Amino acid sequence: MSTNSVKVGLIQMECSIKAGENINKALSSVESMAKKGANIICLQELFSTTYFCNETDERYFEYAEAIPGPVTEKFSKIAAEHKIVLILPYFERLAAGIYYNTAAVIDADGRYLGKYRKTHIPDDPGFHEKYYFTPGDTGYKVFNTLYGNVGVLICWDQWYPEAARLTALKGADIIFYPTAIGTLPEEGQDEKNKFMDAWLTIQRSHAVANGCFVASINRVGEEGNVSFWGNSFVAGPFGELLARAGEQEEVLLADCNFDTIEKQRRIWPFFRDRRIDTYNDITRRYLDDK
Questions:
Q1: Is 141 assigned a catalytic role?
Q2: Quick one: DSSP state of residue 69?
Q3: What is the mean pLDDT of the chain?
Q4: What is the value of pTM for the model shown?
């Protein structure tokens, strides 16, 4: 079952080194947003911990938990109580030595629907994710929830049009991008503005190119050497900004009418006009004249 018009909620928050505090803060924010009418609520990347990937340290593997597990159990209760869909991105332990950056999805009756594991894993100054995370093996996922078809990708995935396209082709009404992006000490205001503009542009372009809604949820606060700058947002299928947060802790609500997807795809029928017979080379790493 799905409805055509839903209220999307994003929780942009600061995190402490105490996972319990972060989880309780998130639970409180979820309950507050549910009372304001939110139907689908998404938390930021690695919401239950600090963004520990700004350094490499074996002790951070202790943050990882099974999915499903204690965290999904806690949030399943509040999902069922308020009839809300929840997207919970946190650190997953599958087995000794195998860890993922994962998002769990819970339906409005409290049922655990499944998980998406982050596909593209970066390794940059301040973002040493390859040390911690195995590349995702779930493929691109769409979850059929009470309020519509929800696609989930995570942070670095947001720069890849292929990931957005495949998720949309699987029927996503909205693609969520839980995120952790910020600036390093050597990066000034001009660089920050350029990164932020590129970040907004690429994700809004996914909404336009696929005729669907896009919601991105970033962190805020100072963690290690990274200053997270928030600016979480929801965009419509024409790329229009429906809601946008600032750079402090904030809960963001946006009304999304999924009926507009069909109209947009009639006006710009990109799916119809795709020349799938010409795309075989997309699976090659690089093309040359040889």
A1: no
A2: S
A3: 96
A4: 0.96
Separation of alpha carbons 172 and 151, rounded Å: 5
Q: Number of structural domains, the chain?
A: 1
Alpha-carbon torsion, ordered 14, 249, 192, 239, to 10 deg: 120
Predicted pLDDT at 290: 57
Q: How far apart are CA 182 and CA 164, in angstroms?
A: 22
Peptide bond into 125 cis (omega under 30): no
- Amino acid 3: pLDDT: 54
User: Which one of the listed residues 155, 212, 223, 256 is annotated catalytic?
Assistant: 155
DSSP, collapsed to helix, strand or coil, labels residue 44 as coil
pLDDT at 1: 38
Report if residue 288 sits inside a domain: no
Q: Point out the catalytic residue in the list 7, 15, 45, 141.
A: 45
45 among known catalytic residues: yes
What pLDDT score was predicted for residue 2?
Answer: 46
Domain range enclosing 133: 5-270
Q: Does 118 participate in catalysis according to the annotation?
A: yes
Provide the pLDDT for residue 288.
84
The pLDDT of residue 27 is 97
Residue numbers of the chain with a pLDDT score lower than 50: 1-2
What is the spatial distance between Cα 192 and Cα 218, in angstroms, rounded to a whole number?
14
Instruction: Write the CATH number for 149.
Output: 3.60.110.10
CA distances (Å), 93 to each of 65, 131, 132, 165, in order? 5, 14, 10, 28
Q: Where are the alpha helices (DSSP H) in 140-215?
A: 161-169, 189-210
pLDDT of res. 4: 82
Name the catalytic one among 118, 212, 223, 256: 118
